[in-house]
């Protein structure tokens, strides 16, 4: 009986290890030292960064005017939107966090839209395929971990070591739950963004393969809308977490 139970445990762990190796999509790997890097994520991420830098340079290439027009008008509108988002969620002392929240929103927004508008898959690689950066769990986890590091830094900078006293609020009985919450925040941020973008691209790909002409267009438009909403949700939650870590209980 003990031997059978032991063998069943080994088989269960072996199956679990096999599940951990399951991959979504085809990846283009680079070898960097002893590490295996998803090359397609770096390629598309730098493409998104290039797009953002180009738009920023085009919008501010001329001397800034008191009465904005053209590209300057668009840039100022985006900046005001991001500033209002940070001010609403963080409150006092929001200004230093506008660049961080703005970078998160713009990178995720352009990444999501690039997956819906740019036909990445027509660019052939030796193996694997290109896709939006946020279509890879590594990207969304990295963004979520940056958010976690940001709100820990914000809390420690304002309160010092007394920041950790929040784990005992409103009662020490909730200590394990409050600690667990800091692990669930990056998990929920990363999996929400990754799952929504992956599901949207899969639905559009399936519809295009079945009905390649008119039917996928409404789904693509809906995908653009949901992609923008996902970027807004991620940036809003990141700002809310930072504001929560800085507030006085």
Automatic annotation (TrEMBL):
Topological category with respect to the lipid bilayer: Multi-pass membrane protein
Keyword terms: ATP synthesis, CF(0), Chloroplast, Hydrogen ion transport, Ion transport, Membrane, Plastid, Thylakoid, Transmembrane, Transmembrane helix, Transport
Segments traversing the membrane: 37-58, 97-117, 137-156, 193-215, 221-243
Any one of the GO CC terms: chloroplast thylakoid membrane
Function noted in UniProt: Key component of the proton channel; it plays a direct role in the translocation of protons across the membrane.
Domain of life of the organism encoding this protein: Eukaryota
Cellular compartments annotated: Membrane; Plastid, Chloroplast thylakoid membrane
Species assigned in the record: Selaginella uncinata (Blue spike-moss)
Protein name: ATP synthase subunit a, chloroplastic
Quaternary structure (record): F-type ATPases have 2 components, CF(1) - the catalytic core - and CF(0) - the membrane proton channel. CF(1) has five subunits: alpha(3), beta(3), gamma(1), delta(1), epsilon(1). CF(0) has four main subunits: a, b, b' and c.
Keyword Transmembrane: yes
GO MF: proton-transporting ATP synthase activity, rotational mechanism
